[in-house]
Amino acid sequence: MSCGEPHETDCSEVLDHLYEFLDHEMPDSDCTKFEVHFEECSPCLEKYGLEQAVKKLVKRCCGHDDVPADLRAKVMGRIDLIRSGQAVPDHDVTVAGAELPGVATE
């Protein structure tokens, strides 16, 4: 997605790292670049607002459930693989009787 306007930080970069911004998982200098981008790009600002609202809704509805430690470790491992650019297995995994598409076993 791109608004078609030139920006110092490209729309695709902002959208590719939107959750890192939302989760405060990026350096302050990058956060500042994103904030500047949102000030000048209404489509990205709209997408940011939508994703922020979804995140708040999920937290409100699901934030009280405990996640099993092994499931959390597997999901975080998959996220790390994706972020590092490594190949991620496509097969499904069964954890405690529930199938989780695309979560790799060890």
From TrEMBL:
Database matches in InterPro entries: Anit_sigma_mycothiol_RsrA, Znf_put
Domain of life: Bacteria
Record-linked Pfam families: zf-HC2
Residues covered by the Putative zinc-finger domain: 11-44
NCBIfam families documented for this protein: antisig_RsrA
UniProt name for this protein: Mycothiol system anti-sigma-R factor
